[in-house]
């Protein structure tokens, strides 16, 4: 009986979705932007509660400072964030966000796969971006920022 209870506990834990909540700082040395300019700094705050996901991002780079806030539900239902439309859903321990928007008259589509490290201190976002004139991939590696008292 103890074995059955232990196996059920392990199965229950493995079925629980990953929680990406926290404050995250981009690690530029571990990230890969390819031919595109990387930001000088990027911070992201993620809040997950039930199926609600809120992501606030601040980045500073050659094109100035940009702040954004996106809201999704992780049940795959469509969400509209200004000119950006998309869906978010859990696939096992990964969060998948698929979105699209118009950029300078062209449709941009993006598929982000979020993965947490085993110690929950590193968030990796693999992005596949498609434009009419080509496709490219970006890898962003974020490290958990220390909690403020």
Description:
The protein is mostly beta strands. The protein has one helix spanning 2-15, and strands at 22-26, 41-49, 52-61, 64-73, 79-81, 84-91, 94-103, 106-116, 122-131, 134-144. A hairpin with a 2-residue loop joins strand 3 and strand 4 (64-73). The chain is globular and about 40 Å long.
Summary, kept brief:
With 149 residues, this protein is mostly beta strands. The protein has one helix at 2-15, and strands spanning 22-26, 41-49, 52-61, 64-73, 79-81, 84-91, 94-103, 106-116, 122-131, 134-144.
Amino-to-carboxy terminus distance: 43 Å
Helical fraction: under 10%
Largest sheet: 10 strands, antiparallel
Order of helices and strands: HEEEEEEEEEE
- By secondary-structure content and strand pairing, the structural class works out as mainly beta
Mean pLDDT equals 88
Q: How many DSSP H or I helices?
A: 1
Overall morphology? globular
User: How large is the share of residues in beta strands?
Assistant: over 45%
Rg, alpha carbons = 17 Å
Strand order within the widest sheet?
4-3-2-1-10-9-8-7-6-5
Oligomer: single chain
The poorly predicted ranges are: 4-15
Tell how many strands the DSSP assignment holds: 10
